[in-house]
Predict the 3D structure of the following.
Amino acid sequence: MLRGQHSAWLSAYYDFHWYLVGNLGGDLIAWGLGPWVGAQGAGIIAALMPVLGIAGVAAVSRALHGRIQPSALAAAIFVLGNPFHFGFVNYGLAIGLAFLSFAAWIRLREGPWWRLLIVMAPLAFSTWLAHAMGWVVLVTLVAGHEGERWARERRWRSVAASIPPGLALLPPLVLTLAWSGGSGSAIGLYQDHLLMRKLMGWVAMLRGGSPVIDIGTPIILGLVIGALWWRGSVKVDKRIGLGAALLALLCLVMPTTLMGSWAADERLVPVAVMAALVSLRSTGRARDGHMLAAIAIALFLLRCGEMGVRWHREGMRYGAALKALDFVPMGARIHAVTLTDGCHAGWTTQAWSHLPDLAIDRRDALVNSQWRVLGAPLLRVRYPLPPEISNDPSEQIPAWGCGKVDLGALHRR
């Protein structure tokens, strides 16, 4: 995107063309920052994921409850959930925008409908442009908010009053239908072992680091909040509580892969939990609220500390491995190979399979580990390679068996 037209090697290996699709959040930011800081420097956009997510949680909590509730501190933990660790940058940016946009909806809903329409139309489009699933989250939260209003007022007039401002959310729907119709692939796919995958989505909502911390954190928070609810110290604000329930239902019924986005249902689980936590309001028992805030802050800092230590350690390993690029000629054609271990891969996510991609920026190389995103084909491999070795996951070789070493797959490749 940034240097292809200036490099004879990159222009021979790749094509890059812009398309209006709902998956451009990080791409557009990198396009703006790249000329100043380079492709790798533009990776700072990954830091915007937790910033936007936590800001969105805080904005919704304040809009609903008048102030940031202790439960919002707990919700901030889930911003650093499974999607964050897997590096779904566009998705993470869109979720943050969805919560910020929903906070705007709450604040403007009681005013003139035309004002809400003027503000929400660009917000909804921006959220969709970052990632279409962010727009789905926004629409779901708005639907829950309006559904609670209908149930409370029990008048058809309240339903009719939701139609004009709701028009602000419709343009992305038209764009999504046009996008999906031209993708040439199935809109949604359900994978094998569906029930187990659905259950594991809730177990692995924070997966990425220490399994003790990742699994223990939701359990501790669940026990603490359950005890506070039993004591009457917290109650649910249905204006977002219904939206959280709808998001949880979506996690259960939606396809595993949606419009080319892998693990679409699994990614939505932390978002549903975030919405559920933001719905909680303290009832006035200051000591209980302080206790919940202290526990949430402690768990957040523990998680960030573990992540920092582990990322620093992995960064040192990555840096040592990347010294190999000093011996790679410019314009090299690289077939990357990552040995994967299906039986002993562990809980922690790593980036080894995509580390060779840095050779594209540093050595203008052709590498076989770039994603081929159906329906969002901004980047395509131009060089004539067999399809089975041109894109991810061709770099991943299942070379290790369960309990024994089996390099047959690597030898055959």
User: Anything to note?
Assistant: The chain has a mean pLDDT of 88. The two ends are 31 Å apart (CA to CA).
